[in-house]
Amino acid sequence: MTITVKLRFFASLRERLGEADTLVLPAGSTVGAARDALMARGSAHAEALARSRAVRAAVNQKMAAETASLADGDELAFFPPVTGG
Fold first, then answer.
1. Is the dihedral of CA 47, 48, 51, 53 positive or negative?
2. Average pLDDT, stretch 6-31?
3. Which distant-in-sequence residues (6+ apart) come within 8 Å of 24 by Cβ?
4. How far apart are CA 11 and CA 9, in angstroms?
5. How much is the pLDDT for 70?
6. Does residue 84 form part of some domain?
7. pLDDT at 83
8. Which family does the entry's similarity section mention (predicted)?
């Protein structure tokens, strides 16, 4: 069984990866598994989402840890940390 999540990218990630996409994953996948699957696409995705980069995630517009579970139809957003002054 699989799930399909809607992907959104913001700020510098949007510039590199586009605004939106979808991803099909095994049922029971986590945010971390989704990130790994995206990095496996290679080049731009691997570089932009590399584990050495600070990247935040949100599921259905709520901040989420890498261990958060995903469900079919969820929106998963990735963005760099935001700083302000």
1. positive
2. 96
3. 2, 3, 4
4. 7
5. 98
6. no
7. 55
8. Belongs to the MoaD family.
β-pairing, 2-9 with 56-59? unpaired
**Measured between alpha carbons, how far is residue 19 from residues 10, 15, 22, 74, 85 in Å?**
7, 8, 11, 16, 26
Rounded to two decimals, the pTM is 0.93
User: From CA 75, how far away is CA 33, in angstroms rounded?
Assistant: 15
What per-residue confidence (pLDDT) applies to 82? 75
pLDDT at 63 over 90: yes
The total number of structural domains that make up the chain:
1
CATH of the domain at 38: 3.10.20.30
**Which sign, positive or negative, has the C-alpha torsion 62, 37, 43, 49?**
positive
